Structure formats: C-alpha cells, structure tokens
Amino acid sequence: RYLKIFLLSCFLMACVLLFGRLLPFSHRLRGTSICLLSLFLSYLFYCALFPDGAIMQTSGDPTPSCHRADGAKRRLQKSLSCLLPSDARLSAVEASRLKADQRPHFAHHTAGNGTPSPPMSNLKFGNKKLPNAIIVGVKKGGTRAVLEFIRIHPDVRAAGTETHFFDRNYDRGLDWYRGLMPRTLESQITMEKTPSYFVTKETPHRISTMSQDTKLIVVVRDPVTRAISDYTQTLSKTPDLPSFQDLAFRNQSLGIVDMSWNAIRIGLYALHLENWLRYFPLAQIHFVSGERLITDPAGEMARVQDFLGLKRIVTDKHFYFNRTKGFPCLKKPESSGSPRCLGKSKGRTHVQIDRDAIEQLRDFYRPYNVKFYEMVGHDFKWE
Ligand code: A3P
Fold first, then answer.
1. Which atom of ligand 1 lies nearest, measured to the CA of 348?
2. Which long-range contacts (C-beta less than 8 Å, at least 24 apart) are formed by 41-46?
3. Residue nearest to atom 17 of ligand 1 (CA)
4. Which of 140, 317, 325, 344 does the annotation list as catalytic?
5. What distance in Å separates the CA atoms of residue 287 and residue 136, rounded to the nearest whole number?
6. pLDDT-derived band at 59, boundaries 50, 70, 90
7. Is the CB of 69 under 6 A from ligand 1?
8. What is the per-residue pLDDT across 139-176, written as a single tens digit (0 to 9) for each?
9. Does the Cβ of 346 fall within 6 Å of ligand 1?
10. Which helix (DSSP H) or strand (DSSP E) does residue 94 occupy?
11. 131: Cβ contacts below 8 Å, ≥ 6 apart
12. How far is CA 52 from CA 35, 49, 125, 159, in A?
C-alpha cells in the first residue's frame, strides 16, 4: 500500500516538473494546466499499474449496488468498499481479510459445486460461484468470528456482506446472488453468512432448491445470553428502548415469556431446526458452540474445517487471547503489521439484567434446549 502511494507521488511530482519545463502556456494558465495534466497522467499510470485494487483500505456501508457496476466501475467493484461486511464497524481482521481475498490462492483441496478449471488468463480472479457452504445463524452467536476465522484458510473465500438473499432478496434471482460472491478457483469453496436465515421459514426450502449439497453452519449460544446480547445491540442503536424485562415478558410475575419478541424467538433452536430438517439431513448441518468458540477457537475451527472437508490449516498458532478485548484475536498475518480483532460491535459489555428474570428465562428455555440437544446429539450445557 505504501509502495503504491510512494510510486504515485513520485510519478505525480515527475509530471509536474516535466510539464513545468516543457509546456509553452502563458504564465496564468501554466499552473492549472500542469496540475490537471499531471493528475490525468497519474490516474492512467495508476490504472495501468494496479488494475485490480484500491490504494487504501476503506471502510463504509456496503450496498449490493457495488456489485452491479460494470465497465469502468469494475475497478471500483473490486475495491474494498464494495466488499465490506454489513456488521456495524469494520475491524482490522475483516478489512485485512477482505484485502487478502482479492489475491488468488493456489490450493489443493477440491470441494463440491465446482466449475471447470479456469484458463490461465482467468487465474487472477477465478469464477464467481454459488456458495458451497453458508453460515445460516444464529444472530449474536459468533457468526462473524467463525466467518473471519475460516476465511484465513487458503481454500475458502467468502462474501464480506450479509447478502440476505434467501430472506430479503430472493426475487432478485440466483444470478444476482452469484454476483455477490468473490471469485474463486476450482479448488476453493465459496461461503457467505447471513444469520437471519436460521429463523426464516422459507430459507431451508430455498437453499435446498439452489443445491441440496449446500453445507450449513449454525453457531449456537446459550439462548438467554444470546437474547441479552441481541437486546444490548438494539439498545445501542435505539437508546429509548423499553427495558429488557418489559420486552421479554408478557407478565413477569407469572413468568409468562413473550415468545413473539424476536430476541426470544431466535433462541428456540429446536423449533427452527425442525424446519431445516425437512429439507436437509442432520449430517449436512454443523453446529458451532458459541461458548467454545471463545474459550477454544482453534478446537472449534478444527471441527468446522473437518466438516467442510478442508485440511486443518487454521490452528491454535493463528490465535491469541487479547486481554484488552477479552476475546481471542488473530495473530498478525505475514503480510500486515496489525493484529486482528473483531470490531467494537463484537464482544460488547452486556446490559445488566436482574437474576430473577434470568432464572425465569432459563426455566423457559430449558425444555427447548433439551429437545435441541437430543436433536443434534450434543449437550451444549447451557445452564
Ligand atoms: P457479544 O457482543 O454479545 O459479546 P455475531 O457475529 O453472530 O453477531 O456474534 C457476536 C458475538 O460473537 C459477540 O457477542 C461475542 O460474544 C461473540 N464472539 C465470539 N468470538 C469472538 C471474538 N473472537 N471476538 C469478538 N466476539 C466474539
């Protein structure tokens, strides 16, 4: 990045000096003409030298319209601003990964959904493919962490944005969806994550219509903690929100929980899973423990890699525990100097909820949790 800026600056200065000597303009026109010509030539120089990338990593709010650009705008399309995740703030880990994702990877793993080997001229960017694997949920479970950790793997490339194709944008069609994906080589798998899929009724059927081979990942977390995390996030955007208890209970003294409140409804994992099992076998769904993802990220990621049929490349040597953040972060990549933690919206301090309300919610969720453990054959120990 700095080399690019340095080269461009040198070129710009060289142009100014050269035109300053050569151009026969009048004194008044001279300065403006020299600047304009120099800028124009520098732009051409930049396009010729770096046809595939932006100079700086930028952050901003991504919109799918970035992906619709073509012609001259394609250069912009490949810039980071079009690939940024929709999660609130882009962190160092996401930004640097997005940049890395613009480089080709040469790996040896073969996954499903493959397309013919790209010709040599195509090696730089590969082809856009529909995802082989989708992180379908759950919101506030740790979905961003799983995506950022798995995309370190050279055989994985992922859409940075939450596409919301199967819940909000289905009418736009599969070609639109494919257009949102990063280019991949035949040996790489394509992924995306949209946590709301897990609780959207139509989604399992729609994904199975796209491909019954799609692998599904669900990051689950104690539904009570998840609900508080969800509420904390909403509160940060809407400060005059009613209290957690007011929203969670229809009648707290009678212990009647409001199941229609989204923050509560999302945690009824067993109910949502039933819907998925109508379209996908259990073996095609992998459940990541949101709790273990924090205490043992390498262990959880080993299981994710096994599930995806990938070589175990993401290991404990990639992680360290960041005391300031209180969460595992990624160690420095070879190419960049900065350690990589998730953004500020991940790992917030939760709103304090009184113990009685928490106990009531634990009682409420217990039968659903037990059913969920039975369905997936694993006890997540949410007590
Ligand atoms: P909190 O902010 O409540 O702590 P999602 O990405 O699905 O929205 O999930 C956000 C949650 O990911 C965070 O919830 C945090 O607990 C969890 N998480 C797991 N691993 C993390 C990590 N390495 N860094 C930050 N947050 C992590």
1. 2
2. 41/11, 41/15, 42/8, 42/11, 42/12, 42/15, 45/8, 45/11, 46/8
3. 142
4. 140
5. 10
6. very low
7. no
8. 999 999 999 999 999 999 999 899 999 999 999 999 99
9. yes
10. helix 92-100
11. 113, 159, 181, 189, 190, 191, 192, 214
12. 26, 9, 9, 17
Would you say the CB of residue 147 lies under 6 angstroms from ligand 1? no
Report the predicted TM-score, pTM, of the whole model to 2 decimal places. Answer: 0.74
The Cα 71–Cα 77 span in angstroms is: 10
Pocket test for ligand 1, best of 140, 220, 228, 231 (most atoms within 8 A of CB): 140
Count of Cβ atoms closer than 10 Å to residue 199 Cβ:
21
Q: Whose CA is nearest to atom 4 of ligand 1?
A: 347
Residue 8 is classified by DSSP as H
140 belongs to the catalytic site = yes
Nearest to 145 by CA among 80, 94, 76: 94
> Residue 84: which of 71, 72, 97 has the closest Cα?
97
Top-confidence residue, 276 or 48:
276
Q: Is 327 in the pocket of ligand 1 (CB under 6 A)?
A: yes
Q: Which atom of ligand 1 is found nearest the CA of 143?
A: 7
**DSSP helix/strand/coil, 80:** helix
Structure tokens at 315: 């290991």
Residues 187-235 pLDDT 10s: 999 999 999 999 999 999 999 999 999 999 999 999 999 999 999 999 9
Q: What is the DSSP string of 264-307?
A: HHTT-HHHHHHHHHTTS-GGGEEEEEHHHHHH-HHHHHHHHHHH
More confident of the two residues 16 and 321: 321
Report whether residue 85 contacts ligand 1, using a CB cutoff of 6 Å: no
